[in-house]
What does this fold into?
Amino acid sequence: MMKSKTVVVSIAVPSAAVYEFASNPENLPRWIPSFCKSVTQINGEWVVESPLGPVVFRFVESNPFGVLDHIVKLPSGLEIHNPMRVIPNGDGSEIIFTLFQTSNMNDEQYAEDAKLVEQDLRTLKCILEESH
It folds into this structure.
C-alpha cells in the first residue's frame, strides 16, 4: 500500500459551482499554476504543459456526485490516479483531494507535493469566492 494524505479545503460557494469550475480542464492553469502552465485538447485528450513536460489529464465523466477523479500521465509514462471530490457543506462546499506517495517519490518530495496540492486548492477557493 502507498502512503496517502487527504487534503480538504472549505469553499464558501455552492458545490455545483465548484464542481462546474473545477471539472472544466480549461480552468486548470488558473487554479493549478504550480503544475499547469497551459492546457490544450489534442486528439480528444487534455494535454497540460507542466514543469515536467507535457502531461495528459483524463477526468471521469461528468456526474451528479461531485466526483472529480482524474488520471495524470507523466512524460515517463507513469499514470497516477488522483481521487478528488466536491461535497456540499450547507451553502458552501468541501473540496477533497487524496494524494498518494508513489514508489518513485521520496518523503521530502511527497511532503512538497502535499504542500502544492493544498496551495492549489486554496487558489481554487480564492478564485471561486472572489467571483461569487
The chain is about 30% helix and 35% strand.
